[in-house]
Design brief:
alpha+beta; two-stranded antiparallel sheet; 6 helices
């Protein structure tokens, strides 16, 4: 059972942090009737965080970016600089979110190992284009 008082306290604590709007929330719960039948009739639902939208198929990481980028917006930053692995989904997401909020982005992308071959494809291709 959900303790409503604790939920309210949590909401109040979260409200203390700066936040920018990036995600389409709340995301829906979708019933999976065929899957439910297969496993014996128990109703199964899937949380559709892939529908947060707003930031290039970023799923639940968009929620975190709303808090992470808020200080930059509040300080009127003109660029966000961040470091990630070379094929990072997060690098792609922060690039798109930063641009959406009107800031340039500088990505410092690193190899996961010294001998890693670098192909400009996937997330890296998107990062180079943005």
């Amino acid at each position: 059972m959900i303790n409503q008082k604790k939920v309210q306290i949590l909401k109040e604590k979260i409200a203390l942090f700066d936040q920018v709007k990036l995600a389409n929330l709340p995301t829906p719960l979708m019933e999976l009737p065929n899957f439910s039948k297969v496993i014996g009739g128990l109703k199964i639902y899937m949380k559709r965080d892939n529908l947060t939208g707003g930031v290039s198929f970023s799923g639940n990481k968009t929620r975190m970016l709303e808090f992470r980028l808020a200080p930059g917006v509040a300080q009127k930053a003109d660029i966000i600089v961040s470091s990630f692995g070379i094929q990072s989904n997060h690098a792609r997401q922060i690039a798109v979110a930063s641009r959406k909020l009107g800031m340039d982005v500088g990505l410092i992308l690193r190899k996961t190992c010294q001998n890693e071959k670098i192909d400009v494809q996937g997330n890296l291709l998107n990062d180079v284009i943005n």
